[in-house]
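Q: What structure does this chain adopt?
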Amino acid sequence: MTEHRAMRDRGPPADRVECWRLDGALGGIELLCADFRRQRFAPHFHDDYTFGLVTRGANRFRYGRQHLVAPVGTLCLAMPGEVHTGEAINGGWSYWTMHVSADLLTGLAAARADRSADPPSFVSAVIDDPAAARRFAAFFAASRNTALPTLAHEERLVDALGHLIRCHAQPRRPRDCRARSYGDLAVRVRDVLADRFADPLTLADLEALTGADRFRLIRAFRTAYGLPPHAWQVQVRLARARALIRSGAPIAAAAAATGFADQSHLTRLFKRNYGHTPGLVARAAGGSSEVPDRG
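A:
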């Protein structure tokens, strides 16, 4: 198994974040260990499933239209595309998190059901299940051990995710169901933004491409996806930049390819949305940035 361990990335005083990858574990898992005392996340989403185990304090966050708190010993999660935030309260919180692809989780769900399966959904974004917490804690602790073979990491990961799927998952409703209640306008806007995520689109462009007036398309899109069009486009840019950096692209090149003004622009928004800098991802992936990462 190949593991690229990152250096610690220091944001505001007393915030600590460490990121690394287990490249051999079921195709590669990105992990993060963070201690947030002042962090306040902007509304954002991920392309992957995100699972976190709170080890200190409490994580207060908005998930869709819900306002939730995940105390120590609980799991907090976010499904792909679901808008969420996060903020430090009463001294902040510490947690381990990992990003798991929808394909991997769907494959595990299908294996458990012995048939094809839809991407799993979860009843709550906060799960209070000591058995699940123990399994995730075992995997996170083992991920630190570079002497363990890939098989040992994979067994712990499958055990943790399999328990979560068995006890807390249900078939996932396609995200576009919510959009279709407002016609297909929100889907058309989304497709334009996804196809042209790096372009400096205007409302006039969206009107011309969708045939809807700006007031209607903004209202439909925000209701369906939880963000206005430009904020959603920024999230797509961040996700694409992150993927490029994970694959070894220099940060400046990733910024230019995904529509950011420069590396500083990407770094500022990356930190605001993810709680750490793109340089941390580059080091975890074994790459490097052309300009030293200042956080």
